[in-house]
Specification:
Rossmann fold, 3 domains, 20 helices, 23% strand, globular
Length: 585
């Protein structure tokens, strides 16, 4: 979840790093810092809080030197404060590092450090690494070798950037946490994510599992398990401007409005090769988290109904307990960033059992992309807001195209390609959803209900609301109400019914009646006049083909959550305690 930036060149490193860290705001953080080296002297400033506040207080962008590193931290070991903030140094101020990930054998490392007479000053696992490097350096007197020896001792996940005051190099290592290299002209960059560097370069290469690298201003040398390897840079088409708000008040609103264009990009791709690959398997098992999990549930409905292929969906963090081993079954892993730790863990476990992996992600060259036997993409462009909006709709569109490719229903594939126009029409309801948010101000409990494809849509709507308003929101299959949740209903509690016309409409009318009998306030999204007639607050939706229900019906729910958050004077782009890329388990 943390953000890393490293720089080596001829420019003032701290200014470059500060600017780049600002583009990683979306990852979420609670402290930040920058370290540079000039004339074999280390300069370091860090503190808890937001980057711009630390800059005002400490002028961290003014540190001298043309080589350095910066970090935005999301706490895993130790509370957010100045001492626990990164970068961390050894006791002699000769080595400095930043770290993303979690070191699992930190207790053993702490014993080693303390037995060498070194007392850590922070509560972090990260600081222990730099002290182990210091200890190894005292034995071998070679900075690169000391780093290499230390990395061999680490257990867990890590992306590391390390520097020594007498070396004009940055040492990098990656295991489980992402690290990308940016190629400049007489300068080199590294970062935890591409958007940090887009305004400096479009040429990138990605470190892979167990890579160790040495970065100089002329280029990079990469080793993997002791052997030197070559990784050619790839050209990224995103522009720095794509990551800016373009006049919108928040990235969340900008990205909601980008959905028609994102869907066009998704739907234009040819999935022929992916379909041919997936057809080899008799069963599909999806692993995903959060919004991607909800998208996976929509695929389950479609692929079982239309392609008659059995499908299961498991929250990625629970996959390891299921012990699913069947080489006739395909693992379909879904992750916006391609770096979600729980999803990657599930994938690696499945691969270890000999299973094949198909990946759906938004990031070419991501860890998930490289782990998979076959991959396809949403092509949704950068999503800066922590909450996923165009991620969900683009994932559902890509998965629907895959489902209908497997079923051979070309006509249904064409229906999916109509998604951009339907969403464009729904976006005209923004004023209506803002007024609805005003009506719902003061409510503290929300229940979302739906059936079939509308159920994962309701789940996604509830997730958006709770993420950015901090209000209680739950989603249920509508038929489950009588099995417990009805006891929670009382006068005025909002029930948000996702109820398109079709085979589920009549049963949804019955479920709405159950809620009305408990004096709940019914808000219904539907194109069915009978459903709308039962609602206290009807929201008229256009008739849409079945596979477009999740894509079209989720948009008003996204807008409702957004406008409620704004009315509550909350920042929808950066909800508390959450981060965009969940890179720790």
């Amino acid at each position: 979840m943390c953000g890393i930036v490293g720089y080596i060149g001829e420019k003032q490193a701290a200014a470059v790093i500060y600017e780049c860290l600002g583009y990683l705001d979306y990852r979420g953080y609670d402290s930040a810092g920058i370290a540079t080296v000039e004339n074999e002297k280390l300069h370091l400033k860090k503190d808890a809080g937001r980057l711009h506040d630390i800059e005002k207080k400490m002028s961290i962008s003014k540190l001298p030197g043309t080589m350095g590193m910066g970090h935005t931290r999301w706490a895993t070991h130790g509370v957010p404060n100045m001492v626990n903030a990164h970068p961390h140094t050894d006791s002699k101020n000769e080595f400095c590092l930043v770290h993303n990930g979690v070191i699992e054998n930190f207790r053993k490392l702490k014993e080693e450090v303390e037995s060498a007479g070194i007392t850590p000053v922070s509560d972090t696992d990260s600081e222990l690494i730099v002290h182990v490097i210091q200890n190894e350096y005292s034995k071998c007197k070679n900075a690169e070798e000391a780093v290499r020896r230390t990395i061999a001792k680490l257990q867990g996940s890590f992306a590391l950037v390390i520097m020594h005051i007498s070396e004009r190099k940055l040492f990098l290592a990656r295991n489980g946490s992402p690290l990308v290299i940016g190629f400049g002209n007489g300068e080199m960059f590294c970062a935890s994510d591409v958007p940090a560097l887009l305004h400096h370069t479009k040429r990138f290469t990605y470190l892979e599992e167990n890579d160790f690298a040495v970065l100089t201003k002329e280029g990079i040398r990469i080793e993997n398990k002791g052997k030197q390897v070559e990784r050619k840079p790839v050209e990224i088409k995103w522009t720095a401007e794509m990551a800016r708000k373009e006049g919108y008040k928040h990235f969340t609103l900008k990205e909601i409005n980008e959905q028609p264009e994102a869907l066009r990009e998704t739907c234009e791709q040819d999935l022929g090769g992916v379909v041919a690959f997936a057809k080899k398997f008799r069963r599909i098992h999806i692993v995903a988290c959060g919004t991607s999990y909800h998208a996976g549930l929509t695929f389950k409905y479609l692929v079982q109904k239309h392609a008659k292929i059995p499908c299961e969906v498991t929250v990625a963090s629970e996959y390891s307990y299921a012990e699913i081993v069947d080489k006739d079954e395909l693992i379909l892993a879904i992750s916006q960033s391609g770096e979600t730790a729980d999803t990657l863990s599930a994938v690696r476990r499945a691969k270890g059992k000999g299973m094949k992996i198909l990946a759906l992600t938004n990031v070419v060259g991501s860890s998930l992309n490289r782990e998979a036997d076959m991959a396809f993409y949403t092509h949704a462009g950068p999503e800066i807001s922590v909450v996923a909006t165009k991620t969900f709709t683009s994932q559902v569109a890509a998965l629907a195209m895959l489902a209908f490719g497997l079923s051979g229903e070309k006509k249904m594939e064409e229906e999916v390609r109509k998604a951009p126009e339907f969403v464009k029409k729904i976006l005209e309801k923004q004023g209506e959803m803002e007024k609805l948010a005003e009506k719902l101000m003061g409510k503290e409990d929300f229940f979302f209900i739906g059936r079939a494809l509308a159920y994962p849509t309701a789940m996604e709507g509830a997730l958006k609301l709770k993420e950015i308003t901090y209000l209680h929101a739950e989603a249920y299959p509508a038929g489950e109400l009588k099995h417990g949740p009805l006891s929670l209903l009382e006068k005025g509690v909002p029930i948000i019914a996702v109820a398109p016309s079709g085979e589920t409409a009549s049963k949804m009318i019955g479920n709405i009646g159950e809620c009305k009998a408990r004096s709940a306030t019914i808000l219904a999204l539907s194109d069915d006049d009978e459903v709308l007639a039962e609602a206290d607050i009807p929201i008229k939706m256009p008739p849409v083909p079945e596979p477009l229900v999740p894509i079209v019906y989720v948009v008003p729910l996204q807008l409702l959550a957004y406008h409620l958050a704004v009315l509550m004077k909350l920042d929808p782009d950066k909800p508390r305690n959450l981060a965009k890329s969940v890179t720790v388990e």
